[in-house]
Design brief:
Layout lengths: L5 H4 L7 H6 L9 E5 L6 E7 L3 E2 L4 E2 L5 H4 L22 H6 L9 H4 L4 H4 L9 E2 L10 E2 L7
Parallel strand pairs: 2-5
Antiparallel strand pairs: 1-2, 2-6, 3-4
Length: 148
């Protein structure tokens, strides 16, 4: 008899905080600076990430303090995930909220915390820290589309 994993048996709202946190695949795409075009609503990506992101691990270096250190850091919640249109289609929170399953490369599936990076699904090696950039608007790129 196989037991179904928690993300297949619980809604996002029913998950414990540790279950919720474990859904994050560590891609760090949510830490990428983005702009929204006023006229079209189109999201423009940059290759710049939050100063708190560890560029090697793609994890927040001050996760528990992030909201104090970066007041505009967005907290992803079961209630907000579908309103955050800029979240990538590969985001585990978004996938589950849309009734889809986790991707095959997700750490909960593979058992390997580095599987997101190994599958080339993270920002690792593609971004610079805001600490090293003078003008973020000069860094708009097109490598990551939140709707794909």
């Amino acid at each position: 008899m196989s037991i179904e994993p928690f993300w297949k048996t619980k809604t996002l709202e029913q998950m414990t905080s540790s279950e919720w946190e474990s859904l994050c695949d560590g891609c760090a795409k949510c830490c990428v600076f983005k702009f929204e075009e006023d006229e079209t609503g189109h999201i423009l990506q940059t290759d710049v990430v939050c100063k708190l992101l560890d560029l090697d691990s793609c994890g927040c270096s001050k996760y528990l303090e992030r909201k104090v250190l970066v007041p505009d850091c967005i907290s992803i919640t079961p209630e907000s995930i579908l309103q955050l249109k800029w979240m990538p289609a590969s985001c585990s929170y978004r996938l589950l909220a849309e009734g889809k399953d986790l991707p095959s490369w997700h750490p909960l599936i593979t058992g390997d915390v580095k599987s997101t990076q190994l599958a080339n699904q993270s920002v690792q090696g593609r971004v610079v820290s805001e600490k090293d950039v003078d003008d973020v608007e000069d860094r708009i790129i097109g490598w990551f589309d939140p709707n794909n």
